[in-house]
Amino acid sequence: MALPHHIAIVMDGNGRWAGARGEPRTAGHRAGLEPVRMVIRECAALRIDALTLFAFSSENWRRPEAEVATLMSLFMDALDREVAELHANRVRLRIIGNRQRLAVRLQTRIAEAEALTAANDGLRLQVAVSYGGRWDVVEAAKRLAAAAASGALRAGDIDEERFARELQLHALPDHDLFIRTGGDHRVSNFLLWNIAYAELFFTDVLWPDFNAAELQLALEDFAGRERRFG
Ligand code: IPE
Ligand code: IPE
Ligand code: MG
């Protein structure tokens, strides 16, 4: 079966999952950790090169303060609890997004986790926190403009390949499979540049219910696609 090299997942539906049980939305976010563990485990076992998970978007900052605070403390706990095991499994972890908006102690914890796992040769795992596809492109453009203004780079030398090197995922191959759970068929400002030719897979399953069998369905669907690039 043809497997993707790089999977992107919009992990959506936590709030609705909790609502259906009469629980607060945050219970859904908590329940969303197990499928995160599952996809990392499965992708590593299948020797998939890279996985990028959408955990918190630029727009999610507009949610009620209490929900944002809970999500941030869940990220902190997850880093505390999971990083040693990720490291033992040779996963290379990176957080992508506007980390200046995160609490300083979370930034510190992220930097430590990235440093610890930087030399690993297993699954390349990106978790997008405070990330927006438009923000990513604008930041890349700013860096290139600064390099051009300082004379370090000639504007005429900027092409797609050079531009892509400035994006958060610079060194990684483009995503070939994009999965969104939760029933909505939209990108919601996730990886705008990198999913240019990704195969899109949408499922109604809510993220806390996403399991290995559901992932397998997405992989089988991908394997059946005829990939064309123009
Ligand atoms: C996804 O679940 C998690 C985040 C966006 C942080 P939601 O919180 O969006 O849950 P729904 O989509 O409202 O059910
Ligand atoms: C997308 O889900 C962001 C994440 C899953 C982190 P949202 O729930 O924020 O997206 P919209 O609002 O339905 O587009
Ligand atoms: Mg949602």
In words, what does this structure look like?
The protein is 43% helix and 15% strand. It is of the alpha/beta class and 230 residues long. It starts with 5 loop residues before the first strand and ends in a 7-residue tail after the last helix. Residues 11-16, 25, 56, 60, 71, 182 line the site of one 3-methylbut-3-enyl trihydrogen diphosphate.
Number of helices: 8
Estimated share of beta-strand residues: 5-15%
Query: What is the string of helix and strand elements?
Result: EHHHEHEHEHHEEH
Label the structural class.
alpha/beta
Radius of gyration: 18 Å
What compounds are bound to the protein?
Answer: 3-methylbut-3-enyl trihydrogen diphosphate, magnesium ion
**Beginning-to-end CA distance, first to last residue:** 23 Å
Describe the structure concisely:
By secondary structure, this protein is of the alpha/beta class. It has helices at 14-20, 25-31, 33-45, 65-88, 104-117, 133-149, 160-164, 212-223, and strands at residues 6-10, 50-57, 92-96, 124-131, 177-180, 199-202.
Please specify the SSE layout and strand pairing.
Layout (H helix, E strand, L loop, with lengths): L5 E5 L3 H7 L4 H7 L1 H13 L4 E8 L7 H24 L3 E5 L7 H14 L6 E8 L1 H17 L10 H5 L12 E4 L18 E4 L9 H12 L7
Parallel strand pairs: 1-2, 1-5, 2-4, 3-4, 5-6
Helix pairs in contact: 1-2, 2-4, 4-5
